Amino acid sequence: MAGRGSFGMAALLLGLALLLLAPLHRHYPRCRVASVAATAPAAPAAPAEPAAPAAPAIPRNLTIAIFGGSTTACGGASSRDNCWTYVFGRALEALTNSSVTLINRARGGTEADYFSSCFPRYLSGPKPDLFLLEFAINGGNVTRLVESIYRHTDIPVALVRQMACFPASRYAAGDPTARVSWPEQREEQRTAGYVYRLHEFDLVNELVPYYGSPCSRESLPKLFETRIAPGQHLGDLGHRLLGEFVARELVRNWGAINNASRRAGAPAGSTERESCFYADEGGSSANSIETAFAPEGEGWAFVEKVPGRKDKICWQSAVPGSRLVSVAPVNFDRSTMYLEYSNRPAKLRVSCGPNAAPGGSETFSEITALHGMNGTMVKSASLNGQCHGQRLTVEALDAAPDRLARVCGISMFASG
Ligand SMILES: *[C@@H]1O[C@H](CO)[C@@H](O)[C@H](O)[C@H]1NC(C)=O
Ligand SMILES: *[C@@H]1O[C@H](CO)[C@@H](O)[C@H](O)[C@H]1NC(C)=O
Ligand SMILES: *[C@@H]1O[C@H](CO)[C@@H](O)[C@H](O)[C@H]1NC(C)=O
Ligand SMILES: *[C@@H]1O[C@H](CO)[C@@H](O)[C@H](O)[C@H]1NC(C)=O
Ligand SMILES: *[C@@H]1O[C@H](CO)[C@@H](O)[C@H](O)[C@H]1NC(C)=O
């Protein structure tokens, strides 16, 4: 992943360099560079000098949608008031005198891919002025999420970069391998930033060094929560710095973020057909995962995570070996499943076969999540392989009452 990311960056830099060296020789080989360069904004038409449009004002009613993982769900903060998103909202109101509405879509443990699937689910309700993405730790394909957003809306996107020093004990012990943790996650976000020229509000570069070197014995206890999962989440000071920093930078960069001529071109339309089954979010673009699957025998049940709440409901099993089978045949070349875990994750086997019978099916994936902490996590699992006109089976291999298996959504992509 990191290798692909740096290739993308090198290609982008080369593309920009080639733009400066234009015109290209017509025998110059066509390659990836050309397609990257093609997303650059058109150079201003030769002699015409149109007056620069004024920078847009910050709206009096400002709506900001945030996608992210546990830090954005307030992980590590001692109270809601100390959480970065609330600090950010208050700081932004103070700086702009606007009335700020935050639509916080964060879910603990999610990767960017969780949100890129079936993206129109998130477009019901008030239209945001900006999307903020905070996947600095959990990673996932942030580029794909940005493309999902830009295929459905022209609302600008900016990135929020924070950090983790987990497990803290490795950093405290000076373990040199701890220093290079999370490189892929950083690179995944960076790549999206380069490709789509997004503003990145980078707490790590801008502020963390003032508290000591990142993840050092000196800075870690100041910036991070150190009781429950030491080093995993920012603590109150880290949350406050992040919230104030993002508000300040957003105001300072509002014109540039909203400047259409600084944006990379919209992504090409997708050649894949997507079908989605979710129970949450209630958007019209997804079918219910409740009707997509049925348990085979005892074990799986469709449950509300919190009684009375309709937004987080999943198929759940505590019975080892129990099977959940798609009601109808499914179609995909690539698929993403959303699994929720509490504390100890169950191991799942996902397979596809004519009758989803044991032995007669192809195993796509055995999914194991590693946890360093308690709490509910959402994991997106990628299934690559052909499953056309067959049924899909999820088997909870080692589920138990303290090791629940939960299947909460699935997106399927078929080419053509
Ligand atoms: C928008 O960006 C272009 C290209 O960087 C710049 O020339 C122009 O002045 C910007 N417009 C505003 C209003 O900032
Ligand atoms: C802002 O929102 C309030 C309440 O929703 C509304 O009364 C007001 O007209 C809005 N103002 C603008 C400028 O849109
Ligand atoms: C802030 O907004 C309020 C209400 O919209 C207004 O009365 C006040 O003058 C504004 N303050 C500033 C500094 O713009
Ligand atoms: C991420 O998504 C983009 C856009 O869909 C795709 O081109 C790219 O190959 C993906 N990267 C990885 C590492 O899967
Ligand atoms: C998770 O919870 C269990 C049971 O409450 C506890 O024994 C364990 O120490 C917790 N783990 C962490 C990392 O907090």
TrEMBL record:
<feature type="signal peptide">
    <location>
        <begin position="1"/>
        <end position="26"/>
    </location>
</feature>
<keyword id="KW-0732">Signal</keyword>
<protein>
    <recommendedName>
        <fullName>SGNH hydrolase-type esterase domain-containing protein</fullName>
    </recommendedName>
</protein>
<dbReference type="InterPro" id="IPR036514">
    <property type="entry name" value="SGNH_hydro_sf"/>
</dbReference>
